[in-house]
Amino acid sequence: MQTDIIFNYFPDLTKLQQEQFIQLEDLYKDWNQKINVVSRKDIDELYLRHVLHSLGIAKIHTFKSGTSVLDVGTGGGFPGIPLAILFPETHFTLVDAIGKKIKVVNEVVEGLGLTNITAIHGRVEELKTQFDFIVSRAVAAMPTFVHWVKGKIKKESLQERRNGILYLKGGDLSKELHDYRTAQIFDLEDYFNEDFFETKKVVYLPVKYKG
User: Fold this and answer.
1) Would you say residue 211 lies in a domain?
2) What is the domain-level CATH number for residue 196?
3) Is the pTM of this model over 0.90?
Protein backbone atom coordinates (compact mmCIF):
# COMPACT_ATOMS: atom_id res chain seq x y z
CA MET A 1 0.00 0.00 0.00
CA GLN A 2 1.15 3.52 -0.81
CA THR A 3 0.20 4.58 2.71
CA ASP A 4 2.93 2.32 4.12
CA ILE A 5 5.39 5.15 3.49
CA ILE A 6 3.38 7.29 5.93
CA PHE A 7 2.87 4.55 8.52
CA ASN A 8 6.58 3.64 8.52
CA TYR A 9 7.65 7.19 9.39
CA PHE A 10 4.72 7.82 11.74
CA PRO A 11 4.18 4.50 13.54
CA ASP A 12 2.09 5.90 16.41
CA LEU A 13 -0.98 6.87 14.40
CA THR A 14 -4.38 5.96 15.80
CA LYS A 15 -6.72 3.73 13.82
CA LEU A 16 -8.76 6.78 12.83
CA GLN A 17 -5.68 8.64 11.61
CA GLN A 18 -4.61 5.62 9.55
CA GLU A 19 -8.06 5.40 7.98
CA GLN A 20 -8.05 9.12 7.18
CA PHE A 21 -4.68 8.88 5.46
CA ILE A 22 -5.90 5.86 3.47
CA GLN A 23 -8.99 7.79 2.37
CA LEU A 24 -6.91 10.66 0.96
CA GLU A 25 -6.04 8.83 -2.25
CA ASP A 26 -9.59 8.10 -3.40
CA LEU A 27 -10.79 11.56 -2.38
CA TYR A 28 -8.06 13.36 -4.30
CA LYS A 29 -8.26 11.10 -7.35
CA ASP A 30 -12.00 11.64 -7.52
CA TRP A 31 -11.87 15.41 -7.11
CA ASN A 32 -8.78 15.82 -9.27
CA GLN A 33 -10.75 14.49 -12.24
CA LYS A 34 -13.29 17.27 -11.75
CA ILE A 35 -10.99 20.09 -10.65
CA ASN A 36 -7.29 19.65 -11.37
CA VAL A 37 -5.46 20.68 -8.18
CA VAL A 38 -2.64 18.11 -8.29
CA SER A 39 -0.61 17.45 -11.44
CA ARG A 40 -1.35 14.21 -13.27
CA LYS A 41 2.06 12.69 -12.52
CA ASP A 42 1.94 13.75 -8.87
CA ILE A 43 -1.46 12.21 -8.19
CA ASP A 44 0.13 8.77 -8.67
CA GLU A 45 2.73 9.63 -6.04
CA LEU A 46 0.37 11.51 -3.76
CA TYR A 47 1.70 10.04 -0.53
CA LEU A 48 5.36 10.71 -1.30
CA ARG A 49 5.22 14.08 -3.06
CA HIS A 50 2.36 15.69 -1.16
CA VAL A 51 1.38 13.88 2.04
CA LEU A 52 4.80 12.86 3.37
CA HIS A 53 6.34 16.11 2.15
CA SER A 54 3.70 18.04 4.12
CA LEU A 55 4.41 15.93 7.19
CA GLY A 56 8.06 16.94 7.03
CA ILE A 57 7.00 19.92 9.14
CA ALA A 58 5.93 17.46 11.87
CA LYS A 59 9.47 16.04 12.01
CA ILE A 60 10.67 19.53 12.91
CA HIS A 61 7.89 20.68 15.21
CA THR A 62 5.07 19.13 17.23
CA PHE A 63 2.04 21.39 17.52
CA LYS A 64 0.58 21.38 21.01
CA SER A 65 -3.14 21.11 21.73
CA GLY A 66 -4.86 24.45 21.19
CA THR A 67 -2.29 25.79 18.74
CA SER A 68 -3.61 27.80 15.78
CA VAL A 69 -1.92 27.35 12.41
CA LEU A 70 -2.40 29.21 9.13
CA ASP A 71 -1.62 27.45 5.83
CA VAL A 72 -0.99 30.10 3.15
CA GLY A 73 -1.59 29.23 -0.50
CA THR A 74 -2.80 25.79 0.48
CA GLY A 75 -3.75 24.77 -3.07
CA GLY A 76 -5.44 21.40 -2.74
CA GLY A 77 -4.82 21.33 1.00
CA PHE A 78 -1.07 20.88 1.47
CA PRO A 79 0.51 20.95 3.96
CA GLY A 80 -2.62 21.76 6.00
CA ILE A 81 -4.75 18.63 5.58
CA PRO A 82 -2.05 16.02 6.36
CA LEU A 83 -0.96 18.09 9.37
CA ALA A 84 -4.56 18.42 10.55
CA ILE A 85 -4.91 14.63 10.48
CA LEU A 86 -1.70 14.27 12.48
CA PHE A 87 -2.58 17.00 15.00
CA PRO A 88 -6.35 16.70 15.62
CA GLU A 89 -6.25 19.08 18.62
CA THR A 90 -4.62 21.88 16.61
CA HIS A 91 -6.80 24.19 14.54
CA PHE A 92 -5.74 24.85 10.97
CA THR A 93 -6.94 27.69 8.76
CA LEU A 94 -6.29 27.01 5.07
CA VAL A 95 -6.37 30.00 2.73
CA ASP A 96 -6.04 30.21 -1.05
CA ALA A 97 -6.93 32.90 -3.57
CA ILE A 98 -8.31 30.34 -6.05
CA GLY A 99 -11.89 29.38 -5.24
CA LYS A 100 -11.93 25.99 -6.98
CA LYS A 101 -8.99 24.84 -4.87
CA ILE A 102 -10.80 25.76 -1.66
CA LYS A 103 -13.82 23.85 -2.96
CA VAL A 104 -11.66 20.72 -3.20
CA VAL A 105 -10.24 21.37 0.26
CA ASN A 106 -13.73 21.62 1.73
CA GLU A 107 -14.86 18.43 0.01
CA VAL A 108 -11.80 16.49 1.20
CA VAL A 109 -12.19 17.84 4.74
CA GLU A 110 -15.84 16.79 4.75
CA GLY A 111 -15.00 13.38 3.32
CA LEU A 112 -12.43 12.80 6.07
CA GLY A 113 -14.71 14.10 8.81
CA LEU A 114 -12.09 16.60 9.98
CA THR A 115 -13.40 19.21 12.42
CA ASN A 116 -10.17 21.15 12.99
CA ILE A 117 -9.94 22.89 9.60
CA THR A 118 -11.39 26.16 8.37
CA ALA A 119 -10.94 26.84 4.65
CA ILE A 120 -11.04 30.40 3.34
CA HIS A 121 -11.18 31.63 -0.26
CA GLY A 122 -9.21 34.86 -0.22
CA ARG A 123 -5.84 36.52 0.13
CA VAL A 124 -3.82 36.16 3.30
CA GLU A 125 -3.33 39.94 3.49
CA GLU A 126 -7.08 40.31 4.02
CA LEU A 127 -7.20 38.09 7.12
CA LYS A 128 -7.64 39.92 10.42
CA THR A 129 -6.79 36.97 12.68
CA GLN A 130 -3.43 36.13 14.25
CA PHE A 131 -1.99 32.63 14.54
CA ASP A 132 0.71 30.81 16.48
CA PHE A 133 2.38 29.39 13.39
CA ILE A 134 2.19 29.91 9.65
CA VAL A 135 2.99 27.03 7.30
CA SER A 136 3.27 26.89 3.52
CA ARG A 137 4.80 25.05 0.61
CA ALA A 138 7.01 27.26 -1.56
CA VAL A 139 4.37 29.73 -2.71
CA ALA A 140 6.84 32.64 -2.91
CA ALA A 141 10.38 33.69 -2.07
CA MET A 142 10.81 34.25 1.66
CA PRO A 143 10.96 38.08 1.57
CA THR A 144 7.67 38.19 -0.34
CA PHE A 145 6.09 35.63 1.95
CA VAL A 146 7.18 37.48 5.10
CA HIS A 147 5.62 40.64 3.68
CA TRP A 148 2.33 38.82 3.01
CA VAL A 149 2.03 37.48 6.54
CA LYS A 150 3.24 40.54 8.41
CA GLY A 151 1.26 41.04 11.62
CA LYS A 152 -0.42 37.64 11.37
CA ILE A 153 1.61 35.86 14.07
CA LYS A 154 0.73 36.05 17.78
CA LYS A 155 3.36 37.51 20.08
CA GLU A 156 2.80 35.10 22.98
CA SER A 157 4.10 31.56 22.36
CA LEU A 158 2.34 28.48 23.70
CA GLN A 159 5.31 26.19 23.22
CA GLU A 160 9.07 26.00 23.60
CA ARG A 161 9.72 27.01 20.01
CA ARG A 162 8.89 30.63 19.44
CA ASN A 163 5.93 31.37 17.18
CA GLY A 164 6.86 31.85 13.56
CA ILE A 165 6.93 30.45 10.03
CA LEU A 166 7.55 26.80 9.05
CA TYR A 167 8.12 26.83 5.32
CA LEU A 168 8.67 23.89 2.97
CA LYS A 169 11.25 24.87 0.35
CA GLY A 170 13.81 23.26 -1.94
CA GLY A 171 17.19 23.97 -3.46
CA ASP A 172 19.81 26.54 -2.50
CA LEU A 173 18.28 29.04 -0.12
CA SER A 174 21.40 31.03 0.79
CA LYS A 175 20.54 34.10 -1.29
CA GLU A 176 16.85 34.05 -0.38
CA LEU A 177 17.55 33.78 3.35
CA HIS A 178 20.55 36.07 3.42
CA ASP A 179 18.78 38.78 5.42
CA TYR A 180 17.16 36.37 7.88
CA ARG A 181 19.87 35.69 10.44
CA THR A 182 17.53 33.82 12.79
CA ALA A 183 16.29 31.37 10.15
CA GLN A 184 16.99 27.69 10.77
CA ILE A 185 17.14 25.21 7.90
CA PHE A 186 16.30 21.53 8.37
CA ASP A 187 17.16 19.05 5.60
CA LEU A 188 14.34 16.57 5.10
CA GLU A 189 16.79 13.97 3.79
CA ASP A 190 17.88 13.66 7.45
CA TYR A 191 14.40 12.37 8.29
CA PHE A 192 13.22 10.63 5.10
CA ASN A 193 15.24 8.18 3.00
CA GLU A 194 13.58 8.67 -0.39
CA ASP A 195 15.52 10.43 -3.18
CA PHE A 196 12.68 12.94 -3.55
CA PHE A 197 13.79 14.62 -0.31
CA GLU A 198 17.45 15.17 -1.27
CA THR A 199 16.98 18.90 -1.85
CA LYS A 200 13.84 19.43 0.24
CA LYS A 201 13.99 21.53 3.40
CA VAL A 202 11.92 23.05 6.18
CA VAL A 203 12.80 26.64 7.01
CA TYR A 204 11.88 27.86 10.48
CA LEU A 205 11.76 31.61 10.87
CA PRO A 206 10.88 32.92 14.33
CA VAL A 207 9.13 36.26 14.28
CA LYS A 208 10.98 39.08 15.97
CA TYR A 209 9.17 41.75 17.94
CA LYS A 210 10.49 45.14 18.93
CA GLY A 211 10.24 46.33 22.50
Assistant:
1) no
2) 3.40.50.150
3) yes
